[in-house]
Amino acid sequence: LVDDDVRLMLAFRDGDDGAFDALFERWAGRVLRFVERMVREPSVAEELVQETFLRVWRARERYQPEARFSTWIFTIAGNAARNELRRPFRAAAHDSLDEEREGAKLEVAADDPPSDELVDARRTGQGLEAALAALPERQREALWLRAVEGLSYAEVAEALDTSEQSVKALIHRARVTLARAGGGTS
Amino acid sequence: VTPELEAKLSALLDGELPPEEAAALREEIARRPELEAKLAELSAVDEGLRALPVRPVPAELQARLEERIRAERRAQPRSPEAGRRAPPRAPRSGATPGWRRRWPAAALAAAAVLALVLLVQLRRGEVQVAQTGPAPTLPVEPAPGLQPLPEDRLDPGREAADVALAEDLPVIEVLDVLAELDELEGAGSG
Prior knowledge:
The structure holds two protein chains of two kinds.
Chain A: H1 4-13, H2 17-39, H3 42-58, H4 69-86, H5 88-93, H6 99-104, H7 116-124, H8 127-133, H9 137-148, H10 153-160, H11 164-180
Chain B: H1 3-13, H2 19-31, H3 33-50, H4 60-75, H5 80-85, H6 98-124, E1 126-128, E2 137-139, H7 156-168, H8 171-189
Helix pairs in contact in B: 1-3, 2-3, 6-7, 6-8
C-alpha cells in the first residue's frame, strides 16, 4: 500500500508542507478531469478540486495508509462531487439520471433501444463525452475510475461505498451503453 | 451475444475474471468472431474515454487553495502539536489578570472615600466645587436637623486621617464608622 503518493502523504502528515504541494502537482489534473465528468461544469469542478485537497489537508493528522492514495483521493473527490450533485437546485436537473432510474436499467438487455439522451448525443454529434454525461451517475463514476484511473473493482467499490458485484454490474452496463452510443468511435 | 457473456467480456477486459474462467473465455473468443468483435467494441469505449481531451489545471487553482488553507489555519484552534511547540503560559492565579481582579476593590474604596468626604463637608455646611486653582467654597445652610461640626472636626489633618482610614476599610465598615459618627454627634448635641 505504500506507494510514492502514500509516502508523500505520510511526509505531509509529519509536517512536510512541501509534500502537500507535490501531491497537488501530481493529482490535481486527474482529480479535475474526474470531477469535471461528474458535475459537467468547469467552474464547479475547479471548486471541487479545491474542496478535495482541502479535505486532504484537514485529514492530514489522522491519515493512515490503509489504501492506495488513488483510492483515497478519488473517494474524497467522489464524495465531494456527489454532495454537489445532491444540492437541491442540481438535484432537479439531475433527476432523469437518479438512482431509481439506474436501478430500472438493471434489466436492460443489450438490444434494447438506446435512451433519449443517447439518441440526442448521436444526433448532435457530441459523441462519447455527451454519452458519458448521459449515463447514470454511479455508472459514470465506476466506469471512469476503472477504465481511466485504473482502479480495481475492489477499489472502485470502496470509493463508491458498495460491493464489488455492484461495481462489476455498473461498469458492464456503462460500457454496453456507451458502445451502443458510438463508443470510442466518436 | 447474451448479456451474461457480455458481462464476462467486460470483466475479462478489466482483468477481474478468475484465471480459469478467463482462460476458458479466451478459448471461446478464439472460436467465435462475434465475441471478439464485442470485446473490441467494449475495449474501444475504454480507449475512447482515455483519449478524451484533458483540460490543464488553471494556474490560479493552487493559489486559491492556499488562500483557503490559510483561512482555515487562522480559524482553527491551536492543535495539541502546536501547543507543544509553544506552550501557553499558565495564569499566575486564576484566569483573570491582576488589574481586573483589583479594580473593583479600588473603585469601591474610592467611592467610599468620596462619600465620606462629601458627608464631612455637608456636616461643615459647605460644598466644594471641583475646579482648577483654589476651590471657592459656597456657604450653604445646614440641612434641617444637622448642626455644624465642632471645630476639631474641621482639622485638615483629621480629615486626611479619615480618608486614610476609609481607603483601608471595606464599604460596610465605612458605613459602620459613619453610623458611629452620627451616634457620637447625636450624643454631643443632645
